[in-house]
């Protein structure tokens, strides 16, 4: 099989970067970057993510939404790692154990600051949360990060 080139190679390298991030050892999840400005992450939420009242804690919502929006934005940047500078959350339903999909999409910006949003969809297809974030270019080269492999 021929290795991906160009845009596709960047998308696969972002997926690899996500898989290698130490935080993702705590969350059963996989990233897919289907195209520029888009990201989809499939999570499996379980009782380890619950607060005392028996539903997913807000930190789990933030993680899923931030990751999806971040990777949607970073899919448009091939040289630098982006940093989250601000993120707004709207939590609309309690989230129980099961599969969850975080769908991220780029909204605007292509130079220094990027805006992207994301939504969480539970196994029944209901939206349970959404968020919007701003992301800026860092001084960190993607190619220097463990896991980011374009070839």
Automatic annotation (TrEMBL):
Keywords, comma-separated and alphabetical: Hydrolase
Organism: Sphingomonas carotinifaciens
Listed Pfam families: 4HBT
MF term (GO), any: acyl-CoA hydrolase activity
Name of the featured protein: Hotdog fold thioesterase
Domain of life: Bacteria
Domain (Thioesterase): residue spans on this chain: 54-128
Record carries keyword Magnesium: no
InterPro entries hit by this protein: HotDog_dom_sf (IPR029069), PAAI_dom (IPR003736), Thioestr_dom (IPR006683)
